[in-house]
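Sanity check record (used in CI):
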Amino acid sequence: MTEKAIFYHAGCSVCLDAEQVVADAIDPARYDVESVHLGETPGRVTEAESAGVRSVPALVLGGQAYHINFGAPIDALRA
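Expected output for Thioredoxin:
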């Protein structure tokens, strides 16, 4: 059984680079990774904030938000 992981990003170059690193590093046999482009799905910004995301790119894994580099503050992604 796989655990859910969510990678939140804004589509910027920093985010896309981080998305590739996450895709290469996470074991697909262990984690089902969903990639969420918050610029395209602004309705999920509140969900990301509730998960502890304060900036993107960020990976939420096991209920913990891990911030990767810095692309944009979450407030910049509000619709």
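Strands lie at 3-9, 31-37, 55-61, 64-73. If this sentence no longer matches the regenerated tokens, the check is flagged for review.
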